[in-house]
Amino acid sequence: MYQFTSEKINLLGRELLLSERTARDVNKLIAYSKANPDKNYSGMLIEAAVTIQDAMKPNYANLPFYCLKKYLLKRQLKSKNLLGKLTAGELFHYAGKVLELEGIKKKAE
């Protein structure tokens, strides 16, 4: 079985794992991009927030559905909340880290 690469980061005051996204998540983001072809700054911010949200799923994916921690983590890591709590620079920084983990973007030396 394939092991996703991940990296520990401090986001919103929590120590969380940032990992690769699944192919389904990437395809959903591509479909969103194709449906909204006009690339303005707000569209890029939304895509960065969705990328981060998808990369955070392993933090709560294996928790049982009745666990309150799962509900709170999912709510805290929604793209709408990330857009409200993080700056544009932080959004692009963490989205870039996700792309580095996936091997799409090279690390800056």
Structure commentary:
A hairpin with a 2-residue loop joins β1 and β2. The chain is mostly helical and 109 residues long. The protein has helices at 23-35, 41-55, 68-76, 79-85, 88-102; strands at 6-11, 14-19. The longest helix has 15 residues, at 41-55. It has a domain at 27-102. The chain contains 5 helices and 2 strands; from the N terminus they run ββααααα. It is globular. The mean pLDDT is 87. A two-stranded antiparallel sheet has the order 1-2.
Q: How would you describe this structure in keywords?
A:
109 residues; mainly alpha; two-stranded antiparallel ribbon; 2 strands; globular
DSSP E strands, number: 2
Radius of gyration, taken over Cα atoms and rounded to an integer in Å: 14 Å
Distance between the termini: 31 Å
Assign the structural class, choosing from mainly alpha, mainly beta, alpha/beta, alpha+beta, or little secondary structure: mainly alpha
Question: Order of strands side by side in the largest beta sheet?
Answer: 1-2
Percent of sequence in beta strands: 5-15%
Mean pLDDT: 87
What does the main sheet amount to? 2 strands, antiparallel
**Which blocks of ≥5 consecutive residues have pLDDT under 50?**
none
Number of helical stretches of at least 4 residues: 5
Q: What does the overall shape look like?
A: globular
| Helix percent band | 40-55%
Order of helices and strands: EEHHHHH
